[in-house]
Amino acid sequence: MIVAFSVSPLGAGESVAPAVARAVKVVRESGLPNETSAMFTTVEGEWDEVMDVVRRAVEAAGEGAPRVSLTLKADIREGVTDALHGKVEALERELDDLQ
Q1: Domain ranges of the chain
Q2: Cβ atoms 62, 19 nearer than 8 A
Q3: Could you tell me which of 16, 18, 20 has the C-alpha nearest to residue 36?
Q4: Can you name the CATH fold of 2-97?
């Protein structure tokens, strides 16, 4: 599965960068394939391992905050590996065909 998620503490001050950095650190240290963009962190793996990483990332981001907001989108597809890159490669091929 691939999960794209965004986590942000609420009521912890103006800048969320330190909290988001703690969450991204959890994801990167998980060893699962992942990418971070301006809006989401995407992680790929088996259901239990991905959801455990998301849970721990939420906990890390929420340290010191009374509330946490989580947005999550998942693509659950049995038997597919490296979809994190494969989906983008398929899109790029389609774009090349349009030129």
Answers
A1: 2-97
A2: yes
A3: 20
A4: Alpha-Beta Plaits (3.30.70)
What's the average pLDDT block by block, 10 residues per block, for the chain (99 residues)? 95 84 97 96 96 98 93 92 83 88
Instruction: Give the pLDDT confidence score for residue 23 in this predicted structure.
Output: 97
pTM of the model: 0.86
**Alpha-carbon distance 8 to 18, whole Å?**
10
What is the C-alpha to C-alpha distance for residues 49 and 34, in angstroms, rounded to an integer? 13
Contact 70, 60 (CB under 8 A): no
Judge contact between 35 and 88, C-beta under 8 A: no
